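Re: Re: ligand-bound prediction request (bumping)

Still looking for help on this. To restate: I need the protein modeled with zinc ion bound, output as structure tokens. Inputs repeated here so nobody has to scroll up.
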Amino acid sequence: MKQLADGLYQLRGFPPNGINVFLMGDVVVDAATKHAGRRILRQISGHTVTAHALTHVRPDHQGASKQLCDTLGIPLACGEADVPAMEDGDIAARMPDHWLNRFNNRVMTGPPHKVDRVLREGDEVAGFTVLDVPGHSAGHVAYWRESDRALILGDVLNNMNLITGIPGLHQPPTIFTPDPARNRESARKLAALEPALVCFGHGPPLRDTQKLVDFVSGLPAN
Ligand SMILES: [Zn+2]
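Reply:
Sorry for the wait, this slipped through. Here it is.
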């Protein structure tokens, strides 16, 4: 694990920064695909972990969620509008109809699991504030800590080209994003915070506030 800020760690993965999992205080944020359980459990062993929280319910983020919660006996939290997808497991039905989504759903999606804590705007998780940032998924949330301006924003933006792996800021691909305009509104809400550290679901962390602000200000208005 690599420490990014006080109490905030990024777990190792392969390829590096490809699908990110974070330890935020005593909460594991996101769980990659259903194949990631062992690598996550191995890295967090020895750390106190009391809960698991998601940025959003998608095959590359909830894959090992049930395994983590069952193995560690910890509760699961996610955004309110993503609870049905987590609990009934039919994620493909909530994504644009595209063969790649059906494929990802088959090879990455983990089993459904009961959501113990429903997250809403302003809630607190491990010293971070929950922000509603819908668009990429209906119940997408971000985690924000004002004291050091650290932000975990899931897939509101990617800091990597998902095909080539080359780092760089992008909107999440529209084939994975049911409401791109709403997602851009969410990106503007987050950029307005002027975060000093931005942690993405895909791609390396970014410590260049101006780069984020400039990218978001260049997005289409709607
Ligand atoms: Zn993702």
